[in-house]
Amino acid sequence: MAVTRTFSIIKPDATRRNLTGAVTKKLEDAGLRVVASKRIQMTREQAEGFYAVHKERPFFGELVDFMVSGPVVVQVLEGEDAVKRNRDVMGATNPADAEEGTIRKEFAESIEANSVHGSDSEENAATEIAFFFDDSEIVG
Ligand code: GDP
Hints:
It is found in: Cytoplasm. This protein is α+β, with helices and mostly antiparallel strands.
């Protein structure tokens, strides 16, 4: 299987509880390599742009408020079939539905404050990586 890249965010609920390392260990244990990482305070403009696909959803405003409520860690992850591998270790959006051993089962607080974002396709991964990183910041 091909080595590919995906984009991840450790969300404010996780950075607030000092879980950056614990979440990253789960990613690494799942066979993903962190090839870029930075801790940032997202601006409202960035959060609205990043989640523009959800603009019409009723929870859009709350989601943007949540994503700017504290620092996040944006990451590029590399591994075999990275998008699926990351989605598998993240677990279901709603932690109540997430499988044992997944990040969201172990750490998420709610369907909104669910600790991690992960791209859902290779195409979106490329767009999302470019949203936050220059090529020179990614060292595989
Ligand atoms: P994901 O790909 O598993 O992150 O899920 P989605 O793309 O469907 O949703 C994006 C993000 O919006 C989720 O990770 C949650 O943080 C948030 N979200 C999803 N569904 C809900 C909801 O019903 N209510 C609220 N408040 N937030 C939600």
